[in-house]
Amino acid sequence: MPKKQMKLGAFLYPTGHHVAAWRHPQAAANAGSSIAHYREIAQVAEHAKFDMIFLADGAGTRGTEADLPALSRTATRYVAQFEPLTLLSSLAAVTSHVGLVATATTTYNEPYHVARKFASLDHLSGGRAGWNLVTSTSPYEAENFGSGGYTPHAQRYERAREFADVVRGLWDSWDDDAFVRDKESGVFFSPEKLHVLHHKGRHFSVRGPLNVARSPQGHPVMVQAGSSEPGKDLAAATAEVIFTAQVTLADAQSFYRDVKGRLAGYGRQWDHLKIMPGVFPVVGRTRQEANDKFEQLQDLIHPEVGLSLLQATGGLDLRGHDLDGPLPDELPPTEGGKSRQQLLIDLARRENLTIRQLYLKIAGARGHWQIVGTPADIADQLQERFEGEGADGFNVMPPYLPGGLVDFVELVLPELRRRGLFRTDYEGPTLRDNLGLPRPAIGGWAPAARAFEHAAE
Amino acid sequence: MPKKQMKLGAFLYPTGHHVAAWRHPQAAANAGSSIAHYREIAQVAEHAKFDMIFLADGAGTRGTEADLPALSRTATRYVAQFEPLTLLSSLAAVTSHVGLVATATTTYNEPYHVARKFASLDHLSGGRAGWNLVTSTSPYEAENFGSGGYTPHAQRYERAREFADVVRGLWDSWDDDAFVRDKESGVFFSPEKLHVLHHKGRHFSVRGPLNVARSPQGHPVMVQAGSSEPGKDLAAATAEVIFTAQVTLADAQSFYRDVKGRLAGYGRQWDHLKIMPGVFPVVGRTRQEANDKFEQLQDLIHPEVGLSLLQATGGLDLRGHDLDGPLPDELPPTEGGKSRQQLLIDLARRENLTIRQLYLKIAGARGHWQIVGTPADIADQLQERFEGEGADGFNVMPPYLPGGLVDFVELVLPELRRRGLFRTDYEGPTLRDNLGLPRPAIGGWAPAARAFEHAAE
Question: Luciferase-like domain location, by residue (chains A, B) (predicted)?
Answer without folding.
Answer: 24-392
